[in-house]
Amino acid sequence: MDHRQEVDLNDATWLNPPLATAVEGTDLLVTAREESDFWRTTSYGFVRDDGHALLTAFPGGSAVEVTFLALFDALYDQAGLMVRVDAHTWIKAGVEMSDGVPQLGAVVTHGLSDWSLAPVPDWHGRPVTVRASRVGDAVTIRARVPEEPWRMVRLAPLSPDAVAGAGPFCCSPRRAGLQVRFTRFTRGPADTGLHEGPDA
């Protein structure tokens, strides 16, 4: 049984409103601002906190899912799901263009950012679902495309006492004109176990 519920967009708040948004049926189209990004210091030496994220409450024991079309063609075009406490504590996970192919990855930030990637060239142009599940002191990130099983992306620490939000995000660090189509934004109960994953 699917216990997830669609998030009413009126119950979510933009962190850094994008250049434009539009609703087409049940889809949300987001146009990113030029040179928008989320990153803190590591290797690059800069802090960027002007990417776009539409956040709803993300308490312990809950999960948030976002589905979007991974249709990117410029370096660092990216979209997926963000978990956010504040400017120093956040996670972004999804698909990003790097080395000429779509990459499934995550950035976990606790003061400083890290970055992990794995190439998923066959995900180009397909709907990708990213799920963040919060239990205890951890957030588990999983992702998949239709007809394929969930993939574990990241297990990251998050204080049980932290007040967090989660929802779709996108960034366009190198260009103008990136538009991302989000087709689903839901919330529901957290996964029952680390290795079992979601029921559906």
UniProtKB/TrEMBL annotation:
Gene3D superfamilies linked to this entry: 2.60.120.200
SUPFAM superfamilies: Concanavalin A-like lectins/glucanases
Cross-referenced Pfam families: DUF1349
InterPro entries named in the record: ConA-like_dom_sf (IPR013320), DUF1349 (IPR009784), UCP022704 (IPR015987)
Source domain of life: Bacteria
Database matches in PANTHER family: REGULATION OF ENOLASE PROTEIN 1 (PTHR35332)
Descriptive protein name: DUF1349 domain-containing protein
